[in-house]
Description:
It is built from no helices and 14 strands. The chain is mainly beta. Strands 2, 3, 5, 6 and 7 form a five-stranded antiparallel beta sheet that branches. Strand 12 (181-190) and strand 13 form a beta hairpin.
Amino acid sequence: MVSVLTTSCSKDDDNDPGSKVAAPTLSNASELQATSFKASWTKVDLADSYLIEVSKKSDFSSTVTGYNKKSVTTNSAVISGLEGETKYYFRVYAKDGSDISKASAAKDATTTKLIAGPVLKDATDIQNTSFKIEWTAITGADKYLVEVSSKSDFSSTVAGFNKKEVSEISASVSGLTTKTKYYVRVYTKKGADVSKPSAVKEITTS
């Protein structure tokens, strides 16, 4: 009686086991933010690029958009576009032409809490072509981003107010059209992190 042993390949070993390229060694994640972190690893002899995988799942059965073996040529990368207070798993492969190493041992990183968004106050000093807006200060904020639009979905913005950076907790919005309704929202910015937008305010010029 002949027995046949079959094995299934996991996503961990989907590259050529006979690769001549060594797998990189990952360092712990650094520069942790609410929406990003930095991944670094050892340089590998022969490697001309590296492939990064990032996932919310420890088995990498699905990956974060843009990080399904994303190719980079340096031995570090900032992983961005993430969610706050979320654990991510990441690993790296070395690549030499078509030759790809086995995956590095995976590491995990948990993003920090997303900074709070401001609360907009009612507009003041409303004129024919301008008005002033203010909002609450947020502890830890570096900047605030102001968006102004004549469309409620912000599909287009007023010139100069497409997430305009300001350091204060107020801004004068000018260059507007008389008797026109505008929509305003503000974000908090801390480092590379940007909060969710404030509730929208509607202002109609006089």
